[in-house]
Design goal:
The structure is a homodimer of 272-residue chains. Chain A is of the alpha/beta class and 272 residues long. In chain A, 45% of the residues lie in helices and 16% in strands.
Chain lengths: 272, 272
Amino acid sequence: MPDLSRLAIHTITNKPWSLAECIYAYKKIGIPALSVWRNVIEPLGAKEAGQMLRDSGLKVPALIRGGFFTSTDASVRQATLDDNRRCIDEACEIGAEMVVLVVGATPGLALAEARKQVADSIHSILPHAQAANVKLAIEPLHPMYAADRSCINRIKEARQICEQLHHSMLGIALDVYHTWWDPDLEQEIAHASRQKTLFAFHVCDWRVPTRDFLNDRTLMGKGCIPLKTIRQWVDLAGFTGPIEVEIFSDEYWAMDQTRYLEMIRDAWLTQL
Amino acid sequence: MPDLSRLAIHTITNKPWSLAECIYAYKKIGIPALSVWRNVIEPLGAKEAGQMLRDSGLKVPALIRGGFFTSTDASVRQATLDDNRRCIDEACEIGAEMVVLVVGATPGLALAEARKQVADSIHSILPHAQAANVKLAIEPLHPMYAADRSCINRIKEARQICEQLHHSMLGIALDVYHTWWDPDLEQEIAHASRQKTLFAFHVCDWRVPTRDFLNDRTLMGKGCIPLKTIRQWVDLAGFTGPIEVEIFSDEYWAMDQTRYLEMIRDAWLTQL
């Protein structure tokens, strides 16, 4: 029997499925954990989703996603903080260990200023996260999202906020799609290990050529990311958490999701 | 009269035009310089193109592009070196001050190994460049091109090769499109200034949202790049060369190029 104990799937990976369908399919194939995107709990509410998840016995590494902290409008920023507190409450309700933060970026707002807003915002919500016993994980996004999705595009800038706020509930979600190109990747993974901030490890692959800015990720082994090398760095860093599959792909979303799930399992077992 | 003395246009910016059409239109509107892409000299040959350019009186900051040094096949790498020497010869023939290098990347070849190949390749062709009195400028490309176009995605890695090879004919072409997101940009521009390696400054803007990986750059001022800030850093670095407009855009290529050229001139005058 292959060891799937560290496999987790992000529900967005099987976007056509509801939460109930994800739970059913993942359990059936022996996958022990799923990270939950907010869109699949919205139709149910967090309470009912939490009940379903507890009944399933599946583990829930993360709720995705909080963040989007940046704005040139203070009232928008305030509303975002409130939404992030609700997101933390939902994570608590569904038993998720952490909320993954996509921090935001705003055209016209300098990236350095945006990063200050992010640090201030995380500082504001950390007490709420601690009270709920939900960790916060900053996910650096690829520089191609620097305009409007994330002003944090390397692990280094995530690390700097972790160092500044220095809180045991704050860390980093490392996604190979966003970070594989970074010449400092190995060194920053080792840093995160020493600082105990490596909270999550997301995998997929970079398709060559990539045809869409958002929804053309591919299955592990079908792209150019040196997955075994990065996995080795993460292992050396002492990371023993779930290795989470997060793939946005119009191509794969269009196929039979049960068959696709088997392909994901097989790629996860052989390509990492 | 507005001062256009530091304006240069890359011929690819007006892709529908031949070299003769570019020369005619740029002169007519008072633009004193153009950087020449190899595709527009190919139909003429470098000798005839050189004659046209000398007759025009326009300056030629650069021939674009050499590079693409990386491969898993040694014979391919060798052929590429030969092509780069030809490119240097063409630059000499048309009176271009430098060849811009897009260094290449190869799926399946580790980025660190690819960078070694790049350094070795540049080392091999530098004597030829020196003999021809043509500079070589490494252009870091955005990390979204790390898979198959460039293993050098930040100024830092370009700087490291410049430091390693330490040659007066080797420097960096800074393009805002590729580097605006880099948290180290200001510091690296200052580095390049001290090391006298800031050879070129290319401008355009990052459209939000960007709809295509290659051909959706936009006109200065129509995107999110802090152009005036970066221009200020470049000025402080003592750079006094041409400020070159390089825009790949299916949208702008589809419009009347004479009208577009006026828009470029106006954006260059007001947005930098």
